Amino acid sequence: MNAAVLEGRDLPEGWTPRILDAHHHFWDLEGDGSWPWIQDEYNPDFFLGDYNAMRRTFLHEQYLEATRGWDVIGTVHCEAERSRDEEVAEDDFLEGLHAVDRRFPAAAVAHASFLRDDLDEVLAAHAERPLVRGIRSKPVIARSASESVVGQPGTLQDPRWIAGLHRLAEHGFSWDLRVPFYHLAEAADLVAELDGIPVVVNHCGLPLDRSDEGLAIWRNGMHRLAALPGTTVKVSELGLYPNVWNPESNISVVRETLQIFGHDRAMFASNLPVATLTAATFDDVMDVVLRGAAGSTAAQLDALFHNTAARVYRVDLTPLLTTES
Question: What are the Amidohydrolase-related domain coordinates in residue numbering (predicted)?
Answer without folding.
Answer: 21-314
